[in-house]
Write a structure and sequence with these properties.
The chain is of the alpha+beta class and 558 residues long. It contains 19 helices and ten strands. The protein has helices spanning 5-10, 16-19, 29-42, 47-53, 58-67, 85-113, 115-120, 123-135, 251-287, 299-328, 335-360, 371-378, 388-391, 394-408, 414-426, 438-465, 473-500, 507-527, 534-557, and strands spanning 139-143, 159-162, 168-179, 184-192, 201-207, 213-215, 229-240, 244-249, 289-290, 293-294. A hairpin with a 5-residue loop joins strand 2 and strand 3 (168-179). Helix 3 packs across helix 6 and helix 10 packs across helix 18 (507-527). The model has no long low-confidence stretch (mean pLDDT 93).
C-alpha cells in the first residue's frame, strides 16, 4: 500500500516534490465571484428569520442553486463549475466567514455528499447523477454514522444483502445525524455486505424517494439551524446492483477516502472562522476605551489576536499543502494529513471564537451581537468528522500500523525484522530542505527533530506495548502532537518557499513562523517522552474514585 507524505517521513525520507505543490497556485477569480454572489444573496434575506424557522427558505435555496454552489466540486463535463480542491477550500473558508450555518448545506453536498460518485462512480453513474447534483436538483447526503456507531465505522450495522435473483441489494438499517437529510434527494449509504466479515462494506447510491426509505424530522440542534440533520431509516429497500459504487467490499476504503475531503473542508472552515474572529477582535479592541486607551494596547488582548493570526496562517498552509496532495492524486493516503488539518483547525478556531466574545466584553454576551450564533454554529466542528479525542490519537495509530507493516514485511525471520527495526531506529531521515533565512532553517531542524522522536517513540511503543499500544492514549496523543507541529512547520515552510518565487518571503510570515517554532518547542518538551508523567498516573487513580462513587450513587438511587 502506498504511503502518505507524513508516513514516508517516518519511514526515512521527506518527499520534497510534495512541498512544491504550493507553487502550482491559480488565481482565485472564480472563487471571488462565487463569494461575491453568495454575500449578495445573504443580504437579500433575514438571517434571524431563518434561525427561527430552522430551515433555508425555498427561494434562497433556489438562489444557491443558480449561483452554482452545489456544483463547485463537479467537473464542467457534468454541468458543474469544476473548482480544484484548493479553490474549493478557499471557497469554504470565505463562505464560513459570512455564515457557516447557511453554507453547510452546499459544503456537505460537495465535500462528502457527491464525492464518492466523483471518485469511484462508473461513467453511467456519473452521467445519471452528477448533472442533477451540480444543478442542486438532487442534493446529496453522506450516510455513514449510526445510532450505536460513530468513529468505529468498520462495525456499522446497516446491512445490504444480495437478492435471490441477484438484481438488487436489500438494504436494512438506520443512519443518524445525517447532514442534509431533509434537503437530500440522494444518499451515499454505507452498509455491511457480509455479516461474518466486519468492514466488508459497500457504498450505494440511494434515492430518498424509493420505497422503504424514511427520513425523520430534523433534530433540534444547538446551532447550524439552517442546516438539516436527521435520521434515515431503510426497510427492505431494493437498491439495484448498478448503484453499488466500486467493487463489493470496497465501501470502507471509499468512506475513508471521502472523509479526507470532509476533514479538509473543516480545516478550511476553521481558517475562515479564525480570520473573521480576528477582524472582530481588532475592530472591537480599537474602539473600546478603558483606562483612557484602546484595549488593543493591553498585552493580554493582543495575545488573543496574535494567536488567531498565527494559527490561521499555519492552518491555511496545512490546508493548502494537503489540498495539493489530493489534487496530484485524489486517492492518495492522506488520513494523517487531513486529520491534522481538522484537529488543528477546529480546536484553534474554537479558541478564536471564544476569544472574540471575550474581547467584546459584556456586549458580546448579547444575542444582538454575532458571537452567540457563531459559538453555537461552530461548536460541533470539534465533534463531527471525528471528535477531537479521536483525532488526537488517530494519526499516531495510523503511523504505528504503517511501521508495524513495514517491520512485518521486512522478512520472515526474527533477525530480519530486528535488523529493519534497528535501521529505522538509528537510521537517518533523508531531509533535502535548504533555506536562506535563519528562521526557516530553525523551523526545518525542529521538524526533523520531531520526525526522529516520533519514529523512535513508535518503535519503542510497539516493542513495549505490542497490541496494547492502541490503549495507550496519552502516549498516542503525545506522538500526534509532535506530528501535528512537524506538519505545521513543514506546511508553513512550503508556503513561504512558494512565495519566494512570486511575492518573496515576507517579514510577517517569518515572524509567524518564529512564534510557531517557539510554541512547537514548548510542546516538544512535554511530548517526546515514551512514558507519561505522574499526572497521567494520578488521573487513572482519581478516575477509579470517580467511577466507584458513581456506581455507589446509582446504587442508592435504584
Amino acid at each position: 500500500m502506498a504511503e502518505s507524505f507524513i508516513e514516508k517521513i517516518y519511514l526515512g525520507s521527506l518527499d520534497k516534490g510534495a512541498l512544491r505543490f504550493m507553487e502550482k497556485r491559480r488565481r482565485d477569480d472564480r472563487v471571488n465571484n462565487l463569494v461575491d454572489r453568495y454575500a449578495a444573496m445573504l443580504g437579500r434575506f433575514q438571517v434571524d428569520s431563518i434561525e427561527r424557522e430552522e430551515r433555508i427558505p425555498p427561494e434562497m435555496l433556489d438562489q444557491m442553486k443558480s449561483i452554482g454552489l452545489f456544483g463547485v466540486s463537479i467537473p464542467t463535463t457534468y454541468g458543474g463549475i469544476g473548482l480544484d480542491v484548493r479553490e474549493q477550500m478557499k471557497l469554504v473558508e470565505e463562505m464560513t466567514k459570512l455564515d457557516i450555518s447557511l453554507a453547510l448545506t452546499s459544503i456537505a453536498h460537495c465535500a462528502i455528499g457527491v464525492m464518492a460518485i466523483l471518485l469511484f462512480g462508473s461513467e453511467d453513474q456519473k452521467r445519471r447523477y452528477l448533472p442533477a447534483a451540480a444543478a442542486g436538483k438532487m442534493i446529496f447526503s453522506y450516510a455513514l454514522t449510526e445510532p450505536r456507531i460513530g468513529s468505529d465505522a468498520r462495525h456499522i450495522e446497516t446491512r445490504a444483502d444480495l437478492s435471490e435473483d441477484g438484481s438488487a441489494y436489500i438494504l436494512n438499517g438506520h443512519k443518524s445525524f445525517i447532514t442534509n437529510a431533509n434537503y437530500a434527494g440522494g444518499l451515499t449509504v454505507f452498509a455491511q455486505m457480509d455479516p461474518v466479515r466486519p468492514g466488508y462494506m459497500g457504498a450505494f447510491i440511494v434515492e430518498t424517494g424509493w420505497d422503504g426509505v424514511r427520513t425523520g424530522r430534523d433534530m433540534p440542534k444547538m446551532g447550524l439551524k439552517a442546516s438539516s440533520t436527521a435520521s434515515v431509516q431503510f426497510k427492505n429497500v431494493r437498491v439495484p446492483v448498478t448503484h453499488l459504487l466500486g467493487p463489493p467490499g470496497a465501501g470502507f476504503r471509499i468512506a475513508m477516502t471521502v472523509l479526507n475531503y470532509g476533514r479538509l473542508a473543516l480545516g478550511a472552515a476553521s481558517v475562515g472562522m479564525m480570520k473573521r474572529s480576528l477582524e472582530d477582535m481588532l475592530k472591537r479592541s480599537s474602539s473600546r476605551i478603558q483606562f483612557q486607551v484602546p484595549i488593543k494596547e493591553f498585552p493580554l488582548v493582543q495575545e488573543k489576536m496574535v494567536k488567531a493570526r498565527v494559527y490561521s496562517h499555519i492552518g491555511a498552509a496545512m490546508n493548502e499543502l494537503t489540498a495539493g496532495l489530493l489534487m496530484d492524486n485524489p486517492f492518495v493516503p492522506a488520513a494523517i494529513e487531513t486529520s491534522h488539518c481538522k484537529l488543528f483547525g477546529t480546536t484553534r478556531a474554537w479558541e478564536a471564537v471564544y476569544d472574540a466574545l471575550q474581547v467584546a466584553g459584556g456586549s458580546g454576551y448579547l444575542t444582538t451581537q454575532p458571537y452567540e450564533k457563531r459559538m453555537r454554529d461552530f461548536r460541533v466542528t470539534t465533534v463531527f468528522e471525528g471528535t477531537t479525542e479521536i483525532h488526537s490519537i488517530y494519526p499516531a495509530l495510523t503511523a504505528a500500523k504503517k511501521i508495524s507493516e513495514e517491520l512485518s514485511g521486512s522478512g520472515t525471520t526474527l533477525t530480519s525484522r530486528v535488523a529493519r527495526a534497528l535501521r529505522l531506529f538509528f537510521g537517518r531521515i533523508d531531509w533535502p530542505l535548504r533555506f536562506e533565512e535563519k528562521g526557516m532553517r530553525e523551523a526545518s531542524r525542529l521538524a526533523l527533530a520531531n520526525a526522529k522522536s516520533i519514529r523512535r517513540m513508535l518503535l519503542l511503543g510497539l516493542l513495549f506495548y505490542r497490541k496494547d499500544m492502541a490503549g495507550k492514549e496519552f502516549l498516542l496523543r503525545r506522538i500526534t502532537h509532535l506530528s501535528l507541529y512537524m506538519f505545521g512547520l513543514l506546511s508553513m515552510l512550503a508556503k513561504m518557499e512558494a512565495d519566494r518565487h512570486t511575492t518573496g518571503v515576507c517579514e510577517e510570515d517569518l515572524n509567524v513562523l518564529a512564534y510557531f517554532v517557539e510554541e512547537a518547542r514548548e510542546v516538544r518538551k512535554v511530548s517526546r517522552s515514551l512514558f507519561g508523567g505522574r499526572k497521567e498516573t494520578l488521573a487513572a487513580v482519581i478516575f477509579k474514585d470517580i467511577d466507584a462513587s458513581g456506581k455507589e450513587s446509582h446504587g442508592s438511587v435504584l
